[in-house]
């Protein structure tokens, strides 16, 4: 049981964490801060936070758990803003979609207290952002990836595992390098492709007409294209090297299809589609049973 959660970034992910902790009876008080005062106010009006803080530093005052849930490029300034009130007893976590950049930001800004920070990435989310969409059950049954460093304190790591487990998550640990390479392939590239596809259609003179005819296949493929521009700008840039590698691999795969349709090679085309179809049919999302 925690006394006080300091929530920095009262949006979809942070708000959902606050609601989940409250629902599980794991926190007495949530003090929140978001960059825009109207967001912090809305978070309190919605019951996501109990107290509005005028700064990140004041939100952390008296907290025993801190969640940083801001776009990844805002992580370093957030660490710098709170560093004077960080203690070695505090559990500090983030929810950023990239990990190497966030860890380096923590190392630079937190210095002696870097060990209190447990880098975390929940594999849960939505294409809609903001505190209005916060959901107490967002994390239930989902994976959470922790990427502790050589300096992460064992007590803090154990507390982090316990909190996410109590919220019904399946906890996995890996290196930040393995994390960023993996999520470039299965999250960052798919988002970029969805953005690019939307733009490629809307950029055509007939684009609006084509879109008016689209059905469930298009809806499923492009759901994530509606995601928040600032959040995704930061993710794509933070993980640019791994993402560029995945773009090259994808381009080869697309080119193989392009060549086969140009050649009218129906046998080879069926084989390529068959590989994809089998792999997708065999794939299930890793999740934890919630009963
Ligand atoms: N959306 C998803 O599906 C998803 C999934 C997993 C992880 N994440 C990660 O979660 C983090 C938050 O994303 P979100 O979807 O909750 O976005 P969001 O836009 O819903 O929430 C972000 C909040 O941070 C606030 N903010 C921005 N800069 C700030 C600053 N400097 N100081 C304080 N507050 C600031 C914004 O006002 C907003 O309230 C990102 O790092 C993202 O990579 C998102
Ligand atoms: O469900 C969605 O809308 C998501 O995009 C969730 C999703 C993903 O699966 O790619 C997005 C970003 C993450 O950091 C983790 C999860």
TrEMBL record:
One Gene Ontology MF term: prephenate dehydrogenase (NAD+) activity
Catalytic reaction(s) noted: prephenate + NAD(+) = 3-(4-hydroxyphenyl)pyruvate + CO2 + NADH
EC number: 1.3.1.12
Domain Prephenate/arogenate dehydrogenase: residue ranges: 3-291
GO biological process, one term: tyrosine biosynthetic process
SUPFAM superfamilies: 6-phosphogluconate dehydrogenase C-terminal domain-like, NAD(P)-binding Rossmann-fold domains
InterPro entries: 6-PGluconate_DH-like_C_sf, NAD(P)-bd_dom_sf, PDH_C, PDH_N, Preph/Arog_dehydrog, Prephen_DH
Keyword vocabulary terms for this entry: Amino-acid biosynthesis, Aromatic amino acid biosynthesis, NAD, Oxidoreductase, Tyrosine biosynthesis
Regions annotated as coiled coil: none
Catalytic class of the enzyme: oxidoreductase
Pathway assignment: Amino-acid biosynthesis; L-tyrosine biosynthesis; (4-hydroxyphenyl)pyruvate from prephenate (NAD(+) route): step 1/1
Pfam families: PDH_C (PF20463), PDH_N (PF02153)
Keyword Oxidoreductase: yes
Record PROSITE patterns: PDH_ADH
Family classification: Belongs to the prephenate/arogenate dehydrogenase family.
Cross-referenced PANTHER family: PREPHENATE DEHYDROGENASE, PREPHENATE DEHYDROGENASE [NADP(+)]
Protein name as annotated: prephenate dehydrogenase
């Amino acid at each position: 049981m925690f006394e006080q959660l300091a929530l920095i970034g009262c949006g979809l992910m942070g708000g959902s964490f606050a609601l989940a902790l409250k629902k599980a009876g794991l926190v007495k008080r949530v003090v929140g801060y978001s960059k825009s005062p109207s967001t912090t106010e809305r978070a309190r009006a919605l019951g996501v936070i109990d107290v509005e803080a005028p700064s990140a530093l004041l939100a952390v005052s008296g907290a025993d758990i801190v969640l940083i849930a801001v776009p990844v490029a805002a992580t370093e300034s957030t660490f710098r803003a709170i560093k004077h009130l960080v203690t070695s007893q505090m559990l500090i976590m983030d929810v950023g979609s990239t990990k190497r950049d966030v860890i380096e930001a923590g190392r630079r800004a937190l210095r002696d207290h870097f060990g209190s920070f447990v880098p975390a990435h929940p594999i849960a989310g939505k294409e809609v952002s903001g505190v209005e969409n916060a959901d107490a059950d967002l994390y239930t049954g989902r994976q959470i990836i922790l990427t502790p460093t050589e300096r992460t304190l064992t007590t803090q790591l154990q507390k982090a595992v316990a909190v996410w487990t109590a919220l019904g998550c399946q906890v996995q640990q890996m290196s930040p390098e393995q994390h960023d390479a993996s999520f470039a392939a299965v999250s960052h590239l798919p988002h970029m492709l969805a953005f690019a596809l939307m733009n490629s259609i809307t950029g055509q003179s007939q684009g609006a007409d084509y879109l008016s005819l689209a059905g469930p296949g298009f809806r499923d493929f492009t759901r994530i294209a509606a995601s928040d521009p600032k959040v995704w700008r930061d993710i794509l840039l933070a993980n640019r090297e791994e993402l560029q590698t995945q773009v090259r691999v994808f381009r080869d795969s697309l080119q193989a299809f392009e060549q086969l349709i140009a050649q009218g090679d129906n046998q080879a085309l069926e084989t390529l589609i068959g590989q994809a179809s089998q792999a997708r049919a065999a794939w299930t999302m890793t999740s934890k049973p919630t009963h």
